[in-house]
Structures are given as structure tokens and as C-alpha cells.
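Contributing new records

If you add data, match the layout below exactly. Sequence lines come first and carry their own label; structure lines follow with theirs. Keep one chain per record. Anything else will be rejected by the validation script.
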Amino acid sequence: MSNSTTLRPVAFTAPHYAASQVGQNVLQHGGTAIEAMVAAAASISVVYPHMNSMGGDGFWLISEPGKEPVAIDASGTACAKADLAYYAKHGSIPSRGPDAALTMAGAVAGWQKALEISHTWQSGLPLSELLAPAIGQAEWGIEVTQSLQDASEKTFDDLSTIPHFEQFLIKGKSLKKGKILKLPAIAKTLSKLAENGLEDFYKGEIAQALAEDLRAAGSPITLEDLNAYEAKIVPPLSVKTSVGKLYNLPAPTQGIASLLILALFDKVQHLATSEADFVHLLVECTKQAFIKRNQYVADQSRVSIDLQSLLAPKSLDEMVLDISLDRALSWPHMAKPGDTIWMGACDREGRMVSYIQSIYWEFGSGVVSPQTGIVWNNRGTSFSLQRNSLQQLAPGMKPFHTLNPAFAELNDGRRISYGTMGGEGQPQTQAAIFSRYVYQQKSLAESISLGRWLLGRTWGDESHNLKIEQDLADEIQSELRAKGHDIALVDSRNELMGHAGAVVMRPDDNVSAATDPRSDGNAFAAHTYE
């Protein structure tokens, strides 16, 4: 090794070890953080098919050192036929089946838009090289994890009878941990994308096949909807706090809620003298953030205010007045379910990515395109059929999204890419990770693994209580009950709390990464030479 060789740090984290390895391999071979993320995104659409697919949505936060982050909105719009008249036969939009498959899939367009940015940084790796690991995984088969088994068993009654869903079953039965699931149709689709380019998903052979299959299934999506879709670069929301500057996605995501929680907590965290106080204040900040989120967030065209104004000092100070150290605000709240993955990357030039990809509920709508193997999202169920509602269904509109990848630049020079899956829990878990790591100065791994909480309803649950993992509850529940919290206990390291992860780049070029013990993930932080 010559004296001119430079040591460069790289890191990657994902909620499935195979996808994390794919991303890290790209980084170690000189690929950019974006290229690593595209390769891992393709991989995780294979190895975690219950959480996401090419038939879902994506959101990106991309950071180059010394520059403002760039955001990409790769979420789908409602198709041209999706209006109140079309759904008049329903009291509400179905959560499963062909009428649930009504919004475009934006993930692949997001990959393409992100790679365009990557190609301005350096000459790009061939798309065939980026997609090859996912193709191999789909061809050779994936090992069913406990998470995949649980999702398969949970959805079996609803989805097993939907035509072509059998590709996610083994001999017509739900998946079992340790079994091998092969996805040859998805392998062929990825191979075609590698050969024809990602645009083929929207304007080529794959688009044609998707349109045919969706029409045959009874979905309102047409080839024209696919042809018209594009992902867009959007300005991120941001807020300055005492510890640094935080970034997240604008509407239609709940990024504003994630930023509000931490901006409010920054103003009250000094009041905490115990772990119970710490959690209580984060929960109360969450309530204030969710009130604003529910009041304003929808398709960007329907947002009545500049969301950035909610993060102004005067606005934050007004919300802080409704936060008490001693008393919990009573809390009825409509929750937003979701099933998602988050991944983070840092390449050898210090460029970082915070990325989230989702099909909403487990296995989305359950509608599978037999020619492509792609399962379609059911994000459109977030629309309302109530006329004049903020979330009223209309062609070309985007539904409310729980998805929101996060990024922060701290005053001490650290840069953090972080996020989680978990629907309503996403901003809450982000707040838990960030506050533990930054304010309590716990290690990155500890900040993610320690007991967590979730305010509000979850899948099939009508209660609005505060769910706390048992290990954390043993320490703080009596104090929280005394403050007026309605508490329900769940098992420690419960998947209900989401699959979180983070990558940190330090000013001395040291890099670290961590993933969630609640997931099947892995995190890599290493050095490459150039």
C-alpha cells in the first residue's frame, strides 16, 4: 500500500441483513451512497416483501458535506379514475383488493431520480451491477424471517384468496421461518429493468405488463397513469435547535411532526430530572405535533399554510405553553397504520442518504401482477370519501404519508442519517433515538435498542393509550400513571415499535452505524482505500 493511499469511512444500515450487506458492498467498491441505496432498495423489495416492493413509494433525503440536503418525493398520486363517483359503491376505500390499488408506485422513479443526482458526483456503476444482488436473491430464494412469518400468518385470511398472491405462500400455506421462498417473476422484472433502464417501469414493457395485470385484477390504474408519473425533487423542511439543524420531508409526509416533536423537546428537555420525565415530555411534545399535523398535512396543493412557519420560534413557544411537566394532556387521536423500511448510508466522500420505502400495510393491497411479480401498495386507503375533507380522494392527489426519513447536522460537526418504519410511531421513534443519542449522550446502539413507547392506536386496536415496552415500563410506569397517562404494556423489543436505524458521520471522519434488534437487520461501518 503506497503512502498516498487515503483511508475513507463508509457505513450502511438496513432492517434486513442481506440488504445491508448489498449496500455496504457497493460502498466498499467505490459506489456512492445513492448507488448503494438503490441496490439495497432493490434487495429489500425481495428479502422483505411484506414491508415494501417496487409497487410502493419512496422518500429520499440526500446530503453532501457543506451543502443543504436535497429531498425526493417518490410517492404515488391517485390515478385518473380514482374519484368519489368511482368509489360511490363503497362506504370507505377498501384496504385490500383491486379497489385498494389506486395510487401510483413511485419507488422506482425515485431510484432513477436519485441516480441522476449520483451521476453528477461521479461516473455511475452499471444498473445491472446495482440490481444483480437482488436478482440473485429472487432467483435463488430468500430465507423466511420471523417478521415475514408473522406478517404472512396475520394476512393469510385476507390475502391468500386474492388471485396470484400464491407467490407469497408455500404450497398454499402461510410462510414459516427458515423456509426458502423463491420469487422468479420479480427476478425477471429486475433483470428487465437492468437491461432496459428504470424508465421501463413507467413507459416500457414492464409498464405495459403492469397495466394489463392491474386492469385484469380490477384496479382503476391504467397505462396512462404509469406513463404520466414522475418523482420530484422538493425542498425539505428544517428547524434549528440548540443542538443543530434538523431536516425532514414536506407534505404529504408527516415530516413536520417529526421536526416539531424535537424542536419542542429542545425547549423543555431541561425540565426532565428522571427517565419518566424524559419520556413524558417527549410524549407531550408528540401530542402537540400531531395536533398540527392532523390540522394541516395533506396533498401539497391542499396545505393551507407554509408548514415551515409552524417551526418558527413564536409558533413553537405557543405550543410549549400547552406542555406540562406534571400532567398528561388527554388524548383521543386517529392513528395512521403503516408497514415500511428505512435505510441509511454514508459513502467515502461523506455523502449521506436517509431513505424510506413502503407499500403501506403488510403486502399492501395484496394485488399481485402475475407478469412482473410486483405486489401493489394500498396507500390510497389514507384518502377519505367524505366530500370537502382535507384528505378527500381526487385524481392526481397524494394521500397523507406516515413516511419521513430524517437527517440532522449537529453543532459539533456530527451528521446523522436516521429513521424507522412503524406508521404512527415513526416520528415518535425518531424522537426517542435522537434525544437519547444527542441529549442523554447514549451510544447509537443503546439509543436504538432501549425500551420505547408508542402513543395512539395501532393495527386493529381501538385504544388511544400509551404503549410501553416492558423493560422501560418496569422503570417508569408508576411515575407516568401518576402524571395521568393511560398505559398499556407490550413485550420488550416489540416489532410494534418499528425497525429503527442510524448512521453517524463525525467531523474527524469516523463513521458509525446501528440497526434495531427488533428487526432482522445489520449495520456496517468500515473503511475503504482509494
